[in-house]
């Protein structure tokens, strides 16, 4: 019952911040990660396309007989989580709910800022999740389309990163937020520059950390946590494993990792 | 013989700068444009994936019985043009050759800078094409990964655009180029800010304009130019036609355009 791995997927490498948090929170678990680098990014695609891609990704991971699947992608979590839950037989954990819960609890003023991709912001998923818990909350969301390419270029500090961060986060100023949710799995890599711009008065909620904690709680509640010392991780990517490896080192803070290329015919168009 | 349209494709909206140049150079021709917005960007994908996507795009366009196909994408032109030529029965025109030719002719010092996506730069296609024409040329190439997302965000001027441009173009300074090739179809939209950074002493070669001129010459040489006044244009996109329409207005300088969504099953996995 507790033998299966934790399966994690993302449109690309962003979900690795969730993997990093999982490795810290539940080091005894096996992890299988799939990054759909052949079709990244999802954040500018239509809802229908995001749903189709997400289900194909989840189906690829089902072959590892996981005990649960983490959709480590805010875009998928905000637009396709219910669709995945309907079509997949194991529990699916997204990254929105845990982050929204943490923000709703942490905020004193109830004024909460969300930053994410266009699709995540357009979905209003964080607003809905936060206001379910705390109906008085005032939530403002801002899309930051340059953040993902900046991270993937390794541009996580310096003049450009700071100027871009200052401009995007300036969009949250009108309501004076006291809590900021990093609503995209790439953004924790930019935490340093974001912190520099917001100053210490704003609390930063990292969805990756919150999601890892939620997974840990779920495993304990369901009694399906793995025993000690049986961890391990496998990486799969649908394109360009060399680029994935390069970025994985940046995201995981590891020195190296091994990645298996998944040929598209192995999972695209797998039928309904 | 001269009845078919000019078929143009790109990974997304970038090829619209080529369409704009074609509309100016050969206004009498019908144009069919396909933007593969479901799988954009191509610039960070592997060579094998780029070839497969390009052939699927070209096959979709063949149903319109075009007299020629323009691969209006530097990434495709640099990594998949020979592959397309082997697998498609109509002439295929890329965007590299014409730009390289124009740069080789325009440069006085033979010191030429190329800017493009990671895939275009890694392919060294511009260097090879320029040095075939002008073996003494010294070519330096620089990937500018933030330029495409900047354009798609509409961020084509202002502090961030200028700072990013200054940083990337600074990478060309060591050899003191007198000619700069915009080796990505998105980049003509940034011509203003690029010009501001380079100053007037550097000649800017716009691959889109050069490609349109090359198509015009080819039609005349082959005697397959259309008659007068029969122009017109149709747009197809594989995802998110609303976003395509929004960006098309920016790229074409038009006030509106109509876009048809192509369902993925209509052209993905069409067999060998």
Jot down its keywords.
homodimer; 272 residues; alpha/beta; Rossmann fold; 2 domains; four-stranded parallel sheet; 10 strands
Summarize the helices and strands and which ones pair or pack:
The structure is a homodimer of 272-residue chains.
Chain A: E1 6-10, H1 16-25, E2 30-35, H2 47-62, E3 68-71, H3 74-79, H4 81-87, E4 92-93, H5 96-106, E5 111-116, H6 118-123, H7 125-133, E6 138-143, H8 147-152, H9 159-170, E7 179-182, H10 191-198, E8 203-206, H11 207-222, E9 232-237, H12 241-252, E10 259-261
Helix pairs in contact in A: 1-11, 2-4, 5-7, 5-11, 9-10
- First-last Cα distance of chain A: 27 Å
Order of helices and strands of chain A: EHEHEHHEHEHHEHHEHEHEHE
Number of domains of chain A: 2
Major beta sheet summary of chain A = 6 strands, parallel
Number of strands of chain A: 10
Shape of chain A: globular
Considering residues with a beta carbon less than 8 A from a beta carbon on another chain, report the largest interface and each chain's count.
A-B, 27 and 27 residues
Specify the oligomeric state: homodimer
In terms of structural class, how would the helical and strand content of chain A be classed? Answer: alpha/beta
How do the strands line up in the largest sheet of chain A? Answer: 4-3-1-2-9-10
């Amino acid at each position: 019952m507790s033998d299966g791995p934790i399966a994690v997927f993302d449109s690309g490498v962003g979900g690795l911040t969730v993997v990093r948090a999982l490795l810290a929170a539940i080091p005894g678990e096996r992890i299988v990660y799939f990054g759909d680098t052949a079709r990244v990014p999802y954040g500018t695609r239509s809802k229908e396309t995001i749903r189709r891609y997400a289900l194909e990704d989840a189906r690829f991971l089902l072959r590892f007989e996981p005990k649960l699947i983490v959709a480590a992608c805010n875009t998928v979590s905000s637009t396709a989580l219910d669709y995945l839950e309907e079509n997949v037989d194991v529990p699916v954990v997204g990254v929105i709910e845990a982050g929204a819960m943490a923000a709703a609890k942490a905020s004193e003023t109830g004024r909460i800022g969300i930053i994410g991709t266009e699709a995540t912001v357009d979905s209003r998923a964080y607003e809905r999740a936060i206001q379910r818990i705390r109906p008085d909350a005032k939530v403002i969301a801002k899309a930051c389309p340059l953040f993902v390419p900046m991270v993937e270029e390794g541009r996580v500090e310096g003049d450009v990163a700071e100027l871009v961060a200052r401009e995007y986060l300036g969009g949250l100023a009108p309501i004076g937020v006291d809590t900021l949710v990093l609503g995209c799995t790439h953004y924790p890599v930019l935490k340093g520059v974001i912190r520099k711009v917001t100053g210490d008065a704003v609390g930063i909620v990292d969805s990756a950390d919150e999601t890892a904690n939620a997974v840990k709680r779920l495993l304990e509640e369901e009694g399906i946590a793995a025993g000690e010392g049986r961890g391990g991780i496998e990486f799969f990517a649908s394109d360009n494993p060399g680029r994935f490896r390069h970025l994985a080192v940046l995201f995981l803070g590891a020195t190296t990792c091994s990645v298996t290329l998944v040929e598209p015919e192995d999972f695209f168009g797998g039928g309904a």
